[in-house]
């Protein structure tokens, strides 16, 4: 399976037409058709629904298309990072959870680009489960996750600052009149919690009891902004960290948990894997910025 053929497949799907794809790729239409037929034979599955005016994918084709996008993106990034002479250039991909500690990382990105203007950054807002997967598969160079989600397969650097856990509630709700939220309060609420796999384990550890399965969880979220809209609509109360959603001049209020529970964040990367020159530059700069921040 050649990257060239994967590019043919990707372009056909984007253009939804073999003729247009052939024009864009500067190859003949019969060449693309033959290559796609050979690809289906090699995979022993049909990628396209036949008999439609525009290109349509089978379920296997949809899956393969998503994988092809990742493969070609990783190939492009690898080639760009390898094709360096004396000028350090390339792309650094960071998958980041929603955390205020990202501010220091943002400052490090600024410092790196002042020294190495040919280094570009791609930042993806995501959760720890996706970050772990994309780090392992090589899509991300680094991830930023809460301390409850570091994992055993990753090296890490702790980032400064801690965020409080609590709930996001409509400002006119009864619970919003309280200063804190207790364990018993949580048991009586319709909750919207993070979809990350380790959150229930963390909840049990916080309260030193197996409470998580007794909670009334009505929805889960990946990114907190969408969860805040669910809260505003009256679906439930979002269990989250403070400082991500700006509640000033809004109809929402953050109420911290009691006892007080906080989480820090860490930058993580895969253990025992060589970093690209650009990734090493970033990590060295972050280490320097952290030392200056702590001095």
UniProtKB/TrEMBL annotation:
The keyword Aminoacyl-tRNA synthetase does not apply. SUPFAM superfamilies: Periplasmic binding protein-like II, Winged helix' DNA-binding domain. GO terms for cellular component: cytosol. The keyword Translocase does not apply. Residues 1-58 form the HTH lysR-type domain. Pfam families: HTH_1, LysR_substrate. It comes from the Bacteria. Keywords: DNA-binding, Transcription, Transcription regulation. GO terms for molecular function: DNA binding; DNA-binding transcription factor activity. Belongs to the LysR transcriptional regulatory family. This is Transcriptional regulator, LysR family.
């Amino acid at each position: 399976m050649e990257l060239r053929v994967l590019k043919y497949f990707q372009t056909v799907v984007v253009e939804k037409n073999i003729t247009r794809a052939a024009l864009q790729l500067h190859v003949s239409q019969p060449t693309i058709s033959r290559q796609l037929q050979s690809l289906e034979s090699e995979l022993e599955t049909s990628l396209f629904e036949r008999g439609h005016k525009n290109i349509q994918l089978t379920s296997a084709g949809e899956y393969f298309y998503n994988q092809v996008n990742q493969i070609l993106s990783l190939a492009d990034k690898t080639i760009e990072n390898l094709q360096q002479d004396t000028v350090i250039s390339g792309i650094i991909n960071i998958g980041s959870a929603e955390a205020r500690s990202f501010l220091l990382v943002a400052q490090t990105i600024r410092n790196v680009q002042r020294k190495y203007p040919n280094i570009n950054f791609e930042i993806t807002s995501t959760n720890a489960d996706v970050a772990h997967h994309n780090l392992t598969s090589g899509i991300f160079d680094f991830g930023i996750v809460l301390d409850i989600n570091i994992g055993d397969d990753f090296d890490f650097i702790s980032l400064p600052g801690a965020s409080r856990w609590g709930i996001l509630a409509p400002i006119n709700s009864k619970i919003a009149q309280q200063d804190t939220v207790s364990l018993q309060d949580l048991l009586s609420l319709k909750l919207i919690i993070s979809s990350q796999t380790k959150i229930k384990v963390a909840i049990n550890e916080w309260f030193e009891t197996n409470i998580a399965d007794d909670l009334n969880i009505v929805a889960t979220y990946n990114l907190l902004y969408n969860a805040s809209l669910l809260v505003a609509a009256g679906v439930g109360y979002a269990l989250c960290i403070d400082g991500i959603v700006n509640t000033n001049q809004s109809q929402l209020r953050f109420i911290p948990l009691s006892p007080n529970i906080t989480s820090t964040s860490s930058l993580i990367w895969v253990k025992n894997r060589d970093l690209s020159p650009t990734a090493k530059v970033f990590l060295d700069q972050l280490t320097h910025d952290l030392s200056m921040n702590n001095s």
